Amino acid sequence: MKHLTPFLVVLCVAGCSSVPSATSRMGAVRQNAVDDAPVDLQRVERKRTNMAWSAEITLQCARFVKDLAQRSWVAPSEKQEIIARAAILVQHAQTHMKAVAAYVPNDSKESRNAMLLLVDQSAGLESERITLEREWAVWQVQYNGLKPEETDLIFSRTPGNDPDC
Questions:
Q1: What does residue 17 show for φ and ψ, rounded to 5 degrees?
Q2: What is the spatial distance between Cα 12 and Cα 129, in angstroms, rounded to a whole number?
Q3: Which of 29, 69, 92, 141 has the fewest CB atoms found within 10 Å of its own CB?
Q4: How many other C-beta atoms lie within 10 A of the C-beta of residue 11?
Q5: Tally of CB atoms within 10 A around 75
Q6: What separation in angstroms does the CA of 106 have from each of 11, 27, 28, 42, 53?
Q7: pLDDT digits (tens, 9 = 90+) for 71-120
Q8: What's the first-to-final CA gap in the chain, in angstroms?
Q9: Running DSSP on this structure, what letter comes out for residue 38?
Q10: Burial 80-116 (b: 16+ CB within 10 A, else e)
């Protein structure tokens, strides 16, 4: 189990993030711009694909952590919390994946608001995943004999200027 942390990082930290940058969120100004803009279906589909991909990676990551923690030799009382956190993240990822799959874009204000909500939920889901990854690294040091320098840096990729990230 010592060498599974790099696999976790490769599995969980890759590609384009769905975390919105601080400058991309401008409250009412952004909302007014969204209300007036026509729907770019290709851009919406790219966003949906990115969100679905991110949710799938999060789901795999949470299942991985949950499975390894359950199989660990550590006393059940010591692993309950990380197993519970992973189980919650599995549920959140599955729920988000269903919501992304069910989204049907159109020119309505409701559709645009639904997309904004999905983007925000995707950012929250990624934040939950990063938190679980950090807790997993600590857990590995506490219970699986990893040295702190053997754990990987957990980070969040912030999107650049690409509006579809």
A1: -90, 155
A2: 8
A3: 29
A4: 15
A5: 9
A6: 34, 22, 21, 12, 22
A7: 998 899 989 999 999 999 999 999 999 999 999 888 889 989 999 999 99
A8: 33
A9: P
A10: eebbebbeebbebbeebbebbeebebeeeeeebebbe
Q: On the CB side of 78, how many CA atoms lie within 13 Å of its CA? A: 13
Per the listing, tokens 């729907």 go with 39
Give the up-direction half-sphere exposure of residue 74: CA atoms within 13 A in the CB hemisphere: 20
Q: Give, as one character, the DSSP assignment of residue 159.
A: P
The label of the residue with tokens 């692993």 reads: 79
Q: pLDDT over 90 for what percent of the chain?
A: 46
Domain map (residue ranges) of the chain: 38-148
What local confidence, expressed as pLDDT, does residue 121 receive? 96
CB 19 within 8 A of CB 126: yes
This prediction's pTM = 0.69
Measured between alpha carbons, how far is 165 from 157 in angstroms, rounded to an integer? 10
**Tokens describing residue 139:** 């857990």
Summarised one tens digit per residue, pLDDT across range 31-57 is 544 555 566 788 888 999 999 999 999
